[in-house]
Design goal:
Layout (H helix, E strand, L loop, with lengths): L1 H10 L5 E5 L4 H12 L3 E6 L2 H12 L5 E5 L5 H14 L5 E4 L14 H27 L6 E6 L12 H21 L4 E8 L5 H6 L2 H8 L3 H11 L8 H12 L10 E4 L3 H4 L3 E3 L4 E3 L7 H4 L7
Parallel strand pairs: 1-2, 1-4, 2-3, 4-5, 5-6, 6-7
Antiparallel strand pairs: 8-9
């Protein structure tokens, strides 16, 4: 208990106000509940009314003030209306987390212009609007400065074939975060990114084409786990709570001098940069060697 009290004293999260864009389900719900559990009042919005209602109820049970609105954060008018309501209810904010994002897997030349615009808006455009609306709330806070956390992705840092527009939009969010961190630094407003990779979220499931999802339905769960262990150096996908913990760190005074940075919460996949832990004795190499290759391509001359 003494150790927990010591960390709480250093983090200084209790009594602060957070805004979570996309805080109703999945990763966003884990973040909302982690903040509320740390003594933070929370305003959240989400497109899914059922999930938002459940998260608001759970967050309220912690004893914190909670305000929730159902809306599509990629709709500029709806997002403005939400920030207006946050201003009315709380008057200020200390923490802002932009979680909303998502995409679909398809070849670039097969995406129509409406799809391109939608991908850019939900992964970059709304973030710019949210930050611009958030800064006055942070300036109005009782404490100097504040923390903005934008969700980006590992795909912003590598060539993501069949996710080109998404990767480009997330890269824009990453560099926007760096730039605005520099611009707002002297006000004590810190701006950082969290870059997940594969996580057990609804967004990752939706990103798969139906035919890919159908093929996964016929794969043993153990086999999927073994495949993830090959890809992720940590051996498994980070749970949503690991992302929530990263938000708590970046939102708190434990990261008081961290700004303009991207925190990769991915179990080491960014560090691995394509090195997979192949089975059958091949180990960590970019492509399978003599142990795995003959099993992948049976009947061929692999000598």
């Amino acid at each position: 208990m003494q150790q927990a009290g010591f960390l709480d004293q250093r983090a200084k999260l209790g009594g602060r106000v957070a805004v979570v864009i996309g805080g109703g389900g999945g990763i966003g719900a884990a973040i909302t509940l982690a903040l509320a559990g740390a003594g933070v009042d929370v305003a959240l919005c989400d497109i899914d009314g059922t999930e938002l209602e459940a998260t608001v109820k759970a967050a309220t049970a912690t004893g914190r003030r909670v305000h929730g609105d159902v809306l599509d954060a990629t709709d500029p008018a709806a997002l403005d209306a939400f920030y207006d309501s946050v201003t009315t209810v709380f008057g200020h904010a200390d923490i802002v987390v932009n979680v909303v994002g998502g995409t679909f897997r398809t070849a670039f030349m097969e995406i129509d212009r409406a799809g391109i615009s939608a991908d850019i808006q939900r992964n970059y455009g709304y973030v710019v609007q949210s930050v611009q609306r958030a800064v006055p709330l942070l300036r109005a806070g009782g404490m100097r400065g504040g923390s903005i956390v934008n969700f980006t992705t590992i795909e912003a840092h590598r060539g993501a074939a069949t996710f080109a527009v998404y990767a480009g939009a997330k890269a824009a969010t990453t560099n926007f975060t760096r730039s605005i961190a520099v611009e707002l630094g002297k006000e004590g407003i810190r701006v950082n990114c969290i870059a997940p990779d594969t996580t057990p979220s609804r967004g990752n499931q939706v990103a798969m084409p139906p035919e890919v999802g159908a093929r996964f339905a016929n794969v043993r769960p153990e086999a999927i786990g073994e495949a993830m262990a090959m890809y992720i150096p940590a051996g498994s996908s980070p749970p949503v709570d690991a992302l929530a913990d990263a938000v708590l760190f970046l939102a708190s005074d434990l990261s008081a001098f961290v700004s303009g940075m991207t925190l990769h919460v991915d179990g080491g996949t960014m560090a691995a940069a394509g090195f997979l832990d192949w089975p059958h004795g091949d180990g960590f190499v970019p492509v399978p060697l003599g142990g795995t290759t003959p099993l992948m391509f049976p009947g061929e001359d692999n000598t």
